[in-house]
């Protein structure tokens, strides 16, 4: 009797396998970090082969930690860092170049060139996205333009493209020996190549970017049996039955299944998603319109999304680049050593600014420095940057939806930081609610796979599984809240126009 569902969570800094029981509780987890490759300023890469090797190891590790066997698992779901693009040879299975990560800004010239005909909103009506370095399509064009022989191979039909979900699925189901070249609408909607209405590839967009259609994976629903994992190795023979991009998976795992329900995930970056139901809401305030999920043959459900590039990775930067803290959790006691930010504001525009600004010309800045400011104030400014950026996105979401958020569900690694959670509630002026299972990304992928295989009977099972762990209520007076938020907005303007067009 299969008692559990497994999820492969291929993230920006690590890959893990998590195993869940029917109540949605974590039974076992194994995790491996992979290298962050920075060839030059603004470039971020991962080694796809390292990621795949780690994926195999964590699947075996998660089973071993609880002495489980394959027959204990009903199905496998996949969730992944979105917009990170891999191009590989369909015959050899070898990538032609490293994966270009979602944070990477090398495609700025390609984006500018595409914008000459139609401006930055050239594709927005059809894809829900502005032209930006964030998305996958221009990354594929960069690889084809810059890797020797890649374009010729692509035009001969020898190369495949996918976000990391597709790379993992293809390898897991056989690789060069019959691997499945599929994706789901949540991932496809992050390429600038998918029509939001038809959930099919927009051939004209691919042609604009010089991407042969033969490279693109088949778009399937987010919850269906795609095929079985190859017999060799951990999880062999099990059905892969769910694929969701990480932020949509977290929305699903948070049981935000009705229009008007929203969540904020605190990870490498922050991502706020608001379920808008089967209605596609186009943003007028710098947000993205995206597919939230598509369950089997049901109509797609859409979302408004506010994407923030740098939040948790700013804490890592403080640790790894400056050495101010030895481990990420150390930031909370350091920030608590002072009463406030001492007048310092940190705008982490390392990869430009995402929502609601979409300014690729911006770069990071610390402003308001005086001799009074110490490392405690800097630590506090780092945490506050996450909350301020989230407030900006939620303000835009309130404007687009016409309905003010009354509470915010939160998840991800940073929600263990109680100082941050209290400040988030203070700067929003609404309660912030953390669930019992805070790592909802993997849970959402597990739900998608379990629904497709009958392990869970329907969305009511998901709603019933959700449970609150803790709530933070706002305690800051409104006048002070708005004063420090105005100062933050002023700080943001200091990052604009730093990178000059060549």
TrEMBL record:
<dbReference type="GO" id="GO:0004370">
    <property type="term" value="F:glycerol kinase activity"/>
</dbReference>
<feature type="binding site">
    <location>
        <position position="413"/>
    </location>
    <ligand>
        <name>ADP</name>
    </ligand>
</feature>
<feature type="domain" description="Carbohydrate kinase FGGY C-terminal">
    <location>
        <begin position="263"/>
        <end position="452"/>
    </location>
</feature>
<dbReference type="InterPro" id="IPR018485">
    <property type="entry name" value="FGGY_C"/>
</dbReference>
<feature type="binding site">
    <location>
        <position position="12"/>
    </location>
    <ligand>
        <name>ADP</name>
    </ligand>
</feature>
<feature type="binding site">
    <location>
        <position position="83"/>
    </location>
    <ligand>
        <name>glycerol</name>
    </ligand>
</feature>
<feature type="binding site">
    <location>
        <position position="16"/>
    </location>
    <ligand>
        <name>ADP</name>
    </ligand>
</feature>
<dbReference type="GO" id="GO:0005524">
    <property type="term" value="F:ATP binding"/>
</dbReference>
<keyword id="KW-0067">ATP-binding</keyword>
<feature type="binding site">
    <location>
        <position position="14"/>
    </location>
    <ligand>
        <name>ATP</name>
    </ligand>
</feature>
<feature type="binding site">
    <location>
        <position position="417"/>
    </location>
    <ligand>
        <name>ADP</name>
    </ligand>
</feature>
<dbReference type="InterPro" id="IPR005999">
    <property type="entry name" value="Glycerol_kin"/>
</dbReference>
<feature type="binding site">
    <location>
        <position position="312"/>
    </location>
    <ligand>
        <name>ADP</name>
    </ligand>
</feature>
<keyword id="KW-0547">Nucleotide-binding</keyword>
<dbReference type="GO" id="GO:0019563">
    <property type="term" value="P:glycerol catabolic process"/>
</dbReference>
<feature type="binding site">
    <location>
        <position position="13"/>
    </location>
    <ligand>
        <name>ATP</name>
    </ligand>
</feature>
<feature type="binding site">
    <location>
        <position position="12"/>
    </location>
    <ligand>
        <name>ATP</name>
    </ligand>
</feature>
<dbReference type="GO" id="GO:0006072">
    <property type="term" value="P:glycerol-3-phosphate metabolic process"/>
</dbReference>
<dbReference type="InterPro" id="IPR018483">
    <property type="entry name" value="Carb_kinase_FGGY_CS"/>
</dbReference>
<keyword id="KW-0808">Transferase</keyword>
<dbReference type="InterPro" id="IPR043129">
    <property type="entry name" value="ATPase_NBD"/>
</dbReference>
<keyword id="KW-0418">Kinase</keyword>
<dbReference type="InterPro" id="IPR018484">
    <property type="entry name" value="FGGY_N"/>
</dbReference>
<feature type="binding site">
    <location>
        <position position="268"/>
    </location>
    <ligand>
        <name>ATP</name>
    </ligand>
</feature>
<feature type="binding site">
    <location>
        <position position="82"/>
    </location>
    <ligand>
        <name>sn-glycerol 3-phosphate</name>
    </ligand>
</feature>
<protein>
    <recommendedName>
        <fullName>Glycerol kinase</fullName>
        <ecNumber>2.7.1.30</ecNumber>
    </recommendedName>
</protein>
<feature type="binding site">
    <location>
        <position position="12"/>
    </location>
    <ligand>
        <name>sn-glycerol 3-phosphate</name>
    </ligand>
</feature>
<dbReference type="InterPro" id="IPR000577">
    <property type="entry name" value="Carb_kinase_FGGY"/>
</dbReference>
<feature type="binding site">
    <location>
        <position position="413"/>
    </location>
    <ligand>
        <name>ATP</name>
    </ligand>
</feature>
<feature type="binding site">
    <location>
        <position position="316"/>
    </location>
    <ligand>
        <name>ATP</name>
    </ligand>
</feature>
<dbReference type="Pfam" id="PF00370">
    <property type="entry name" value="FGGY_N"/>
</dbReference>
<feature type="binding site">
    <location>
        <position position="246"/>
    </location>
    <ligand>
        <name>sn-glycerol 3-phosphate</name>
    </ligand>
</feature>
<comment type="similarity">
    <text>Belongs to the FGGY kinase family.</text>
</comment>
<dbReference type="Pfam" id="PF02782">
    <property type="entry name" value="FGGY_C"/>
</dbReference>
<feature type="binding site">
    <location>
        <position position="247"/>
    </location>
    <ligand>
        <name>glycerol</name>
    </ligand>
</feature>
<feature type="domain" description="Carbohydrate kinase FGGY N-terminal">
    <location>
        <begin position="4"/>
        <end position="253"/>
    </location>
</feature>
<feature type="binding site">
    <location>
        <position position="312"/>
    </location>
    <ligand>
        <name>ATP</name>
    </ligand>
</feature>
<feature type="binding site">
    <location>
        <position position="134"/>
    </location>
    <ligand>
        <name>glycerol</name>
    </ligand>
</feature>
<comment type="function">
    <text>Key enzyme in the regulation of glycerol uptake and metabolism. Catalyzes the phosphorylation of glycerol to yield sn-glycerol 3-phosphate.</text>
</comment>
<feature type="binding site">
    <location>
        <position position="82"/>
    </location>
    <ligand>
        <name>glycerol</name>
    </ligand>
</feature>
<keyword id="KW-0319">Glycerol metabolism</keyword>
<feature type="binding site">
    <location>
        <position position="83"/>
    </location>
    <ligand>
        <name>sn-glycerol 3-phosphate</name>
    </ligand>
</feature>
């Amino acid at each position: 009797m299969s008692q559990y569902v497994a999820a492969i969570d291929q993230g920006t800094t690590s890959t893990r396998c998590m195993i869940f029981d029917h109540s949605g509780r974590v039974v076992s987890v194994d995790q491996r970090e992979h290298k962050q490759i920075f060839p030059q300023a603004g470039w971020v890469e991962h080694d796809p082969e390292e990621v795949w090797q780690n994926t195999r190891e964590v699947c075996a590790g998660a089973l071993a930690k609880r002495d489980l066997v394959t027959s204990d698992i009903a199905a496998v779901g996949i969730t992944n860092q979105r917009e990170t693009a891999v191009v590989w040879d369909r015959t050899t299975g070898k990538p032609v170049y490293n994966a270009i990560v979602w944070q990477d800004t090398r495609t700025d010239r390609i984006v500018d060139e595409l914008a000459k005909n139609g401006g930055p909103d050239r594709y927005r009506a059809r894809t829900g996205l502005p032209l930006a370095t964030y998305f996958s399509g221009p990354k594929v064009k960069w690889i084809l333009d810059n890797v020797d022989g890649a374009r010729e191979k692509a035009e001969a039909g020898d190369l495949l493209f996918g976000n990391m979900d597709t790379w993992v699925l293809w390898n897991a189901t056989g690789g060069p020996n019959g691997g499945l070249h599929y994706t789901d609408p949540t991932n496809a909607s992050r390429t600038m190549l998918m029509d939001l209405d038809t959930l099919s590839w927009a051939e004209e967009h691919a042609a604009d970017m010089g991407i042969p259609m033969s490279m693109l994976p088949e778009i399937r629903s987010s919850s269906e049996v795609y095929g079985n994992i190859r017999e060799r190795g951990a999880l062999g023979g099990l059905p892969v039955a769910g694929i969701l991009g990480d932020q949509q998976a977290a929305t699903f795992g948070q049981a935000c299944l009705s229009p008007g329900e929203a969540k904020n995930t605190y990870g490498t970056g922050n991502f706020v998603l608001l379920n808008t139901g089967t209605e596609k809401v186009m943003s007028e305030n710098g947000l993205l319109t995206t597919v939230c999920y598509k369950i089997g043959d049901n109509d797609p459900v859409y979302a408004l999304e506010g994407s923030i590039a740098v939040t948790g990775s700013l804490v890592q930067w403080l640790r790894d680049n400056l050495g101010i803290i030895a481990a990420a959790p150390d930031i909370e006691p350091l920030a608590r050593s002072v009463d406030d930010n001492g007048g310092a504001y940190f705008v982490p525009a390392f990869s430009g600014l995402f929502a609601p600004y979409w300014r690729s010309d911006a770069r990071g800045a610390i402003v308001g420095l005086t001799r009074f400011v110490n490392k405690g104030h800097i630590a506090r400014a780092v945490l506050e940057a996450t909350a301020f950026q989230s407030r900006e996105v939620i303000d835009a979401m309130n404007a687009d939806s016409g309905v003010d958020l009354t509470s915010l569900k939160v998840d991800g690694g940073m929600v263990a930081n109680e100082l941050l959670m209290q400040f988030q509630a203070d700067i929003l002026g609404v309660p912030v609610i953390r669930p019992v299972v805070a790592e909802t990304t993997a849970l959402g992928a597990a739900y998608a796979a379990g629904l497709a295989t009958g392990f869970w009977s329907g969305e009511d099972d998901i709603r019933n599984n959700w449970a609150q762990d803790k709530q933070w209520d706002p305690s800051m007076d409104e006048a002070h809240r708005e004063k420090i938020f105005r100062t933050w907005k002023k700080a943001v303007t200091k990052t604009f126009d730093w990178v000059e067009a060549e």
